[in-house]
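Quick question: what would this complex look like in 3D?
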Amino acid sequence: MDILERFTGKRPVGWLGPGLTQTYDTPELLVAAGVKYIGDWVYDDEPTVIRTANGPLVTLPYTVELNDIPMMIVQHHESDYLLRRAIDQFDRLYAEGKERAKIMALAIHPYISGQPHRIKYLEAIYDYVNRFEGVLHWNGAEILDWFEAARGRLGVAA
Amino acid sequence: MNAPEPRRLLPTDRLAYSAITQRAPLKLPGGARMVVWVIVNVEEWDATQPMPRTVLTPPAGGSPSPDVPNWAWHEYGNRVGFWRMLDVFDELQIPGVLAINGSAIAAYPPIVDAAVQRRWEFIGHGFTQRNMQKVKDERADIRKTAAAIAAATGARPRGWLGPGLTETWETPDLLVEEGYDYVCDWVLDDQPVWLKTRTRPIVNVPYTQECNDVAMMLIQHHKASEYRDRALDQFEQIYADARDSARVMALVLHPYIMGAPHRLKYFRAAIETIRRKPDVLLWTGAQILDWFVQVSRVG
C-alpha cells in the first residue's frame, strides 16, 4: 500500500490477495492499512459489506469464473472459450441488471490473455459488450464510490 | 453389551450381475417410456476445513486454510446461483429433488423454505460435505440428517445420496436400519435395482456421474455447452433404449456450478427439450421408488 501510494501519489483503496489467498486476520489488517474494498470474496454479483474488528470492509464482485487462470491454466480451455463464456456471462447479468444493478468482472493476466493467440478474443469481448446500452466500464474505486453513495441514499449505516 | 462383528458385504454380495436386456420389461403408467429426475445438491462448506473442491489453486500450490476464495466461490451458489436456477424449475414446472447436507438446513433457511413451498423432495446428503469414510459415527450422521430434514419439512427423507457418492462397507445397511427407502450412490444401471443389506433390501435409484456438473465442469473441464449437448445425447439414447422396458435418466446440478450466469442457459436448453417429449415423465426420486417397488418383485 505504501509503495503504491508513493508511486501514484494516492493511497489505493482496493486489495486483491495473491491467488485471492487470505489468513483469518487479512480483513482486519486491510482495514487498518486503509483498504476500503477487497476482491477476494467471489460470492455475489453485487457488493457486500463484511464486518472486521477494525470497521466494515466492502467486497466487490471479482471472479474466478471469468478469469484466465482457472480457465486457461487449470481447466485448459481453448482460447476462444474466454469469448464464449464472457458473452454468456454478460448476457445473463445484463438481463438480470434490468431489475437491480449487477457487476461483472473480467480477470486477465498479461502472460495468459496477452499471448498473441489469445488477445483477439479479449478484444472481441469488448466489441460485443460495447454494442449494449446502459453498461458502465468502471474501476473498483468507482464501483465503491457508487455503492457507498447508493447505501447512503438508502440510509444504510456504514 | 458387545455388538456382533458386522458382516462385510462386497458390492457383488449386495446384487448379482444382471444384463438389462434379460430382465422382465418394466412398464410405466400411461404408456410412458422413461423417467427423468433432476437433483439439486445444496451443501454447506465448513470454512475452517479444507474445501471439498476448488476452482483456483494458490500461487505455488498447497492447501490454504482458510481458503476464502474457494469457500466464497461455493457460497455464491447458495447466495445467487440457486435462485437463478429456481426460475427454470418454476417456469418449466419441473419437480425438484434437493439433496442437502443436514447442516445446510440451518445455514440456508430461504433455500429450504423455497423447496418446501414447491413440494420438492428432500433427500439426505450427509450431515456435512465430507467423505462418509471420514465421518466419526456414520449411523449418527445418517440419523441426524434425517432428523434435520424431518424438522424442516415435516417428513422424513426417503432417499440418500452420499457426499461425493461416498459409502463405507456398511452404508446401505445403516440406511435401511435408519428408515431410508432408497440410495443413489450406485451408478451401475439405467433402471432401479434392489441391494441386499444385512436386514431388508434397499432400492438404488439411477443417479449419474455422467450428466453431473461436478464431474463435467470441475473434473473434466468441459465447456458449459457440453452439459446441454451431453444431456440431450444421453436423453435420446435412453429414450431409444426404453422402447420395450422403462429406463431412468438423472440430471445433476450444483448451484455453484450450473447456477453461474454463463452456465445456466445450457441446463435450461436441455430440460426444455426433454420437457417437450410427451411420453417422458418428470418425477422425484420417491415417485420412481414407489413405482418400482410396486412393479418389481424382490429377487
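Answer marked as accepted. The interface with chain A takes residues 55-59, 64, 66, 68-69, 72-73, 75-76, 79-80, 84, 221, 223-225, 260-265 of chain B (CB under 8 Å).
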